[in-house]
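Can you give me the bound-state structure? Components:
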Amino acid sequence: MLSLAKRVIQQIIGDKRTLALIIFAPLLLLTLLYFLLGNTTYTPTIAIKENALSPAFVSQLKSEDVKIVDISSSNENANDYLKNHKDVDAVLEVSKLTGANITMFESSVKSGKAMEVIQTAIQNTAKNIIPIAKVNINYVYGNTNDSTFSSLGFVFLGILSFFFVFIISGMALVRERSSGTLERLLMTPIRRRQVILGYSVGYSVFAVIQAILIVLYCIYVLKIHCEGNALWVILVMVLMAISAVVFGAMISIFSHSEFQVVQFIPIVLVPQIFFSGLIPLDTIPYYLGNLCYITPVYYGCTAIKRVMVEGGGFCDIWMFIVALLAYTFILCVLNTLALKKYRKL
Amino acid sequence: MEIKVEKVCKSFDKKPVIHDLTFTIDSGEIVCLLGPSGSGKTTTIRLLIGAIAADSGTICFGDIIVPNIKLLNKIGFMPQNDALYDDLSGEDNLKFFAGLYGIKKDKSEKRISEVLKLVELTNDRKKYVRNYSGGMKKRLSLAAALIHEPDVLLLDEPTSGIDPVLRRTIWDQFKNLKNQGTTIIVSTHVMDEVSECDKAALIYNGILIHFDDIQQLFAKAENGKVEELFLKAAKEQEEGAAIC
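Here's the bound-state model for the whole set.
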């Protein structure tokens, strides 16, 4: 069994590109996501007709972090104006009949930012008259200043690690099948369960290194806030990566070529992303949310969330750890049975 | 170790591939399984090693019934394709297979040097297998089959795609092994290679048409060529089908 694990490790070290893919590609993607979803210091531009608004509001608006364009002299309606001026994010108009009208080009991060500024300005102007107009928002976990990345980072952490390990282990096993080396090694006195264990151990070594690197990178370089103990996050990530190894092996049973492994990605991997915590599961109709219980990513990501966001300890995540272990064990057994195709013993 | 095959039948998807195969191979013989491609040679070898189970009939190595996991320690198997790890060096490939047989480290290093010398790959031991030529791969594959000093060698087309000079050296090595007491079963579709063996099993469409010493076989063939026996069998089977 150990000689098998040793060989897998040797093979990956000999194949520099695979090594780089396991170790660095997730870090690269996480960095990219950090910039894409991170807090932007974007200053929105808002067009107003200054003379149509109250001076108190205008001065309040100008004191916010925003660029104001005065369009008092323009006759265009808001839609046309926005179409012709792509650098303007929102047009704010006030009429006695309908109240404030905010028109924006499209729903985007930029328009959201503009909206936020206008609402703050309205609240700040009104709070001197009625106190309830000033709204303070609080969350039990996290705060209003959190970027999308820091509030959903835990999801990507889990998915990326799972994804890369899955592909590499699935591909490698399929290659072993098609090249005939699997048949050959089963013609030696090795036991079937030793084959599966050997593989899992070999790939898990890299999966573990990758998991630790990802967690440390996220916490210390990308500064994702981790409420609980990072060691628990690492433990869950490691278990999830190992489950990805056996999951990949499982998929390779049903594939005859590398191409067929790739075909499984949309069916098997993409739904796992849906159930990873990106979407609240209790709002999904027809109890489809319960499908999450068959995806290892759900257990991993939920446990990571409990620790990173809610600051939970072992007591809060032990059931997810048990679930991941059980998942891995069951897949290992199934994989061992599947090898019967090559040797009955 | 005597190998006894008795009334073995095997079908895939209800299509019979091996039909009523019976023969006995004595210890220390070189036997070739001869037949055109698709005749059931590889299936026979896989049945012998126990990779697939026979539908009926028995195969025994000495008094051990196939399949038996301990028996695999005594069998060296060389598959038709090379089945080596391209991204490992030749030496590491052998180390891996030695590990699978549970050979201790100090012993395996000595043995690896021995088999590498035997297949004349000592100078290329550190090279990655992906940089090996076809012939080198074939020889390394043979070395891997020999690593645990097996009593029985099952070789599936070991000389296909190999130049005549190398083929000669490989056959010489087989004879050396035979002299050390190893039983060798070789499948081939090259009729000329029969003369290198002690006995030959002629398989046609999954039926054993002849199994005899090669001198006897040559005597049976009218023009002294083994092809003759196959052509005759083909004709007989056709006639048989016509009568049915």
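A couple of observations. The radius of gyration of chain B is 19 Å. Helices of chain B lie at 41-49, 90-100, 105-118, 134-146, 164-179, 214-220, 227-243.
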